[in-house]
Amino acid sequence: MPSRSIRLNGTTVQADYESAGSGSSQSSEQLLDWLRNRQSQRGPRFGCGLAQCGACTVLLDGAVTRSCVRQMHTVADGAEIRTLDGLADGRRQHPLQRAFVELQAAQCGFCVNGMVMGSLGWLEGRIAAGNTAVPTEQETKDFLSGAAPDNTRNYLCRCGTHTRIVAAVRAAAKEMTG
């Protein structure tokens, strides 16, 4: 069974995973399955299995990644993976988590992982690039819908809490940049 060392939410873990084939025909278990079944991460969820809905979103070396279509053999040795499960600092919630709770931005909660982790990667990328302005409502809507130039993937919420989700992302951005 192949293995590599990965930092998962700040802790180094040995990543053993199922693999078959070699070279260009190599395949392995999906990152999402490895996270949920081998590492007990419950934040990333299986939604569509086609990288369309965002429920499986994680940050892989800081990049927003759809874990349902990412195979383990493509994750580099020493990679850093962040999931919703490791976002809180002890008992202190991350600003995005806090904003989603305070603004009641979820109904069923299934999409929350994707909304929070995708927004986290987007906001951290903006801040790292020197953009500390709170995104406008339209910029936030464009990001979540996949219409923004820096994001071609959308995030789906079937419950219809879109206005609260946008407000939560903007509230968290204010705290993260302030």
Automatic annotation (TrEMBL):
Every copy of the [2Fe-2S]-binding domain together lies at 83-170
In residue numbers, the region (Disordered) covers 1-25
Which Pfam families does the record associate with it? Fer2, Fer2_2
> PROSITE patterns under this entry?
2FE2S_FER_1 (PS00197)
Please indicate which superkingdom the organism of origin belongs to.
Bacteria
Tell me which UniProt keywords the record has, alphabetically: Iron, Metal-binding, Oxidoreductase
Q: Name one GO molecular function term.
A: metal ion binding
- List, for all copies, the residue spans of the domain called 2Fe-2S ferredoxin-type: 28-73
Write out the biased-composition intervals (Polar residues).
1-14
Q: Where are the transmembrane segments?
A: none
Keyword DNA-binding, does the record have it?
no
What the entry lists under PANTHER family is as follows: OXIDOREDUCTASE WITH IRON-SULFUR SUBUNIT, OXIDOREDUCTASE, IRON-SULPHUR BINDING SUBUNIT-RELATED-RELATED
* Stated name of the protein: Nicotinate dehydrogenase subunit A
